[in-house]
UniProtKB/TrEMBL annotation:
GO terms for cellular component: oligosaccharyltransferase complex. Keywords: Membrane, Transmembrane, Transmembrane helix. It is a multi-pass membrane protein. Component of the oligosaccharyltransferase (OST) complex. This is Dolichyl-diphosphooligosaccharide-protein glycosyltransferase subunit OST5.
Length: 75
């Protein structure tokens, strides 16, 4: 692709609005902490623990990335 072709491309626009990042970070991190508490108070069924742990880990990771992007550390 030449420079002229690149200049004619539309500007980048993210799939998730930047204004929504603080809310996404708050909800995801609160849900991760709630699931972690839920994990420590339930009976210890291995399959259920694994599912809750995976969901909590995903939410904690996504919430952390959203929080970093909110404060200007674009990862």
């Amino acid at each position: 692709m030449t420079y002229v072709e690149v200049k004619t491309l539309p500007a980048f626009s993210p799939l998730i609005s930047v204004e929504a990042l603080p809310t996404i970070a708050l909800v995801a991190l609160l849900a991760a902490f709630a699931l972690t508490f839920f994990l420590t108070t339930l009976s210890k069924a291995p399959a259920q623990e694994l599912g809750v742990a995976l969901l909590a880990a995903f939410l904690a990771g996504a919430g952390t990335v959203a929080l970093f992007c909110t404060v200007g550390v674009y990862v």
